[in-house]
């Protein structure tokens, strides 16, 4: 009986769950690990603080996509100046490509550690192999199978929860730090907090979820190879969308919470505050937390990358395709949407240059998070505007509570945007 309920619930999980899981990609793992190593449990409140913001932004994005039948870029093109849409698209695609490369580099380092190969040449070969695995899967595999793979990869993030319980934890302090904010008036603290907010509220996730809601509805309502118009959304469908999104964000923030807890209870406690690479973080865990924790941390990096890279490349492809009116969607074959898949290939190959040319991965990951933080206020404003525009969402405009939450996150990200201009 319980097993049947779990299976039924598992089937209802969709774009919201995958979006939440993909938020904990190597870029995020690096940022959260740095936060935990430098400031210990004192950064746990940030995971709790960002939770309602994540729900608000992802619900609005999913709603816009499902109701309008267009992604965020498609709606932006209709309702905003062309120069602004092109600028936003250029920033998202550029940062996504950097993020892909940095993620790939982190994955290659983690895989090399598992094979006990401490050689940059081996890491470059692994990065190339990762590209050869990801691209054929995304391009040639049916959407339903890709979707299923993404869901199962999401579960691998439980590795960070398991790893945390291999280390002694001060749970009373953890609970206290989770609800009582700690602020350190230093440049390092605010840079990490900006990166934390940037990677947790990553702009590419808004584009991804909006388009995935359309893909799911298209598969359910349309026959393969046929052009069809999506039926108007029902209240029941919107309830499912909200439940799926909220569960995804709970899952995402739970993993964030445990990554910080793990690194705080090991690296920070041991005085290892300067993490140069994800390999440094994993290897530092080995003597402090044991072999199991080291392996789980490394496997989490690899599996999260396999989930995140297609999402990053896919969100870039959705943005470009909608702007230029190209056929798009993972439910289409390469021959039906060649430009869409070409953007995915180009983004992934450009990203591959980071590990091949030997750029510093953690630095790239960390500053990618900061760049997301700089883009966020502008995109949040547009998402808020679209989610209240009856020409886009009809009668399903934001509730008062959703608007209040949205305005708070806009204010917070704007303050940090201004602060970043003075700090950097």
TrEMBL record:
Superkingdom classification of source: Bacteria
Main location, first listed in the record: membrane
Transmembrane segments: 43-62, 83-102, 122-143, 150-169, 189-207, 247-272, 292-320, 340-359, 365-388, 400-423
InterPro entries: NRAMP_fam
MF term (GO), any: cadmium ion transmembrane transporter activity
Gene Ontology biological process: iron ion transmembrane transport
Membrane topology listed for this record: Multi-pass membrane protein
Pfam families per record: Nramp
GO CC term, one of those recorded: plasma membrane
Name of the protein described by the UniProt record: Natural resistance-associated macrophage protein
Taxonomic lineage from the root: Bacteria, Candidatus Yanofskyibacteriota
